[in-house]
């Protein structure tokens, strides 16, 4: 017999936590409903799989393996930014913590609060405003990294922290570069 008194409080904790993570933090900062849907689907999917496996004779290792394979297939289709990967990991962690029986709700609530607080701090505007990551396509071919760095410094008005030339097209006279720079002080 399945005891809903054990499942429903954990489900509520999971839904409140993922709501805070996705609406309160992620969507407010990035306005990406497509990724909110991905994070939510993976969170709820993992929660339901783990909950159903806890009442099944099938090993939870089998469930983790199946979920991992399905996640990897989809994640390999796109390039994710480090922040997006962090949100994905936290959404899965919340589901895992909430679906696992940790002898009550106090420990899962504390662990989930720690995750949410950590994300709120590291993804706050104060941290995000320090540097900017951009992919820039220039209308000139600049294969020399020193000349490119000088050009980007002049163009962006900030200190270049790192840059990665991803393409130089001499025929079309374009340069594509991934650049991380510090915004100029106001």
Distance between the terminal alpha carbons, to the nearest Å? 64 Å
The share of residues in helices is 55-70%
Largest sheet: 3 strands, antiparallel
Judged by helices, strands and strand pairing, the structural class is alpha+beta
Low-pLDDT ranges: none
Overall average residue pLDDT: 85
Percentage of β-strand residues:
15-25%
- The count of strands amounts to 3
Q: Report strand order across the widest sheet.
A: 1-3-2
Number of domains: 2
Radius of gyration: 22 Å
| Overall form | elongated
Number of helices: 7
- Element string (H = helix, E = strand): HHHHHHEHEE
Gist of the model:
The chain has 186 residues and is an alpha+beta fold. It has helices spanning 4-30, 33-54, 60-75, 82-99, 106-122, 125-128, 145-156; strands at 131-138, 159-169, 174-182.
Descriptive account of the structure:
17% of the residues are buried. The protein is 62% helix and 15% strand. The N and C termini lie far apart (64 Å). Strands 1-3-2 form a three-stranded antiparallel beta sheet. The radius of gyration is 22 Å and the shape is elongated. The protein folds into two domains: 124 residues, no CATH class; 52 residues. α1 packs antiparallel against α2, α1 packs antiparallel against α4 and α4 packs antiparallel against α5. The chain has 186 residues and is an alpha+beta fold. β2 and β3 form a beta hairpin. It contains seven helices and three strands, in the order ααααααβαββ.
């Amino acid at each position: 017999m399945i005891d809903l008194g054990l499942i429903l409080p954990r489900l509520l904790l999971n839904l409140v936590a993922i709501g805070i993570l996705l609406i309160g933090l992620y969507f407010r900062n990035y306005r990406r409903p497509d990724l909110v849907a991905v994070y939510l689907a993976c969170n709820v999917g993992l929660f339901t799989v783990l909950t159903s496996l806890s009442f099944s004779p099938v090993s939870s290792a089998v469930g983790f393996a199946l979920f991992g394979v399905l996640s990897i297939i989809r994640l390999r289709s796109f390039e994710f930014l480090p922040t997006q990967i962090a949100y994905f990991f936290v959404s899965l962690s919340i589901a895992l913590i909430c679906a696992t029986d940790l002898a009550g709700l106090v420990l899962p609530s504390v662990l989930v609060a720690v995750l949410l607080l950590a994300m709120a701090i590291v993804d706050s505007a104060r941290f995000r405003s320090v540097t900017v990551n951009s992919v820039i396509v220039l209308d000139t071919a600049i294969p020399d990294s020193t000349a490119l760095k000088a050009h980007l410094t002049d163009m962006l008005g900030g200190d270049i922290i790192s840059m990665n030339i991803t393409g130089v097209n001499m025929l079309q006279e374009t340069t594509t570069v991934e650049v991380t720079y510090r915004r100029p002080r106001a």
